[in-house]
Write the structure tokens for this entry.
Amino acid sequence: MEIKVLENEKNRLRFEIVGGSHTLANMITKELWNEGDVTVSGYNLMHPQTQNIVILLETTKKDPKKVLLETLSSIKKKNTEFKTQFAKAMK
């Protein structure tokens, strides 16, 4: 997976995930909406025959890069919690 930053402004970040999927993009953009400072969070599949996803993030005050990194940490934590609970349930 490769990430290309397409736009990096004060309150706007647009980047492409080469080889991404709807699952990954949907998870990221949905979790971004839990951040109160986010005004825009969405993604676009550029062409159905390529696996390139473009994600757009806009904030009112916070640095969108920091918001994205915090969101990715939150996703990682939730996935770890799920893995732990699933392992317990399978015993």
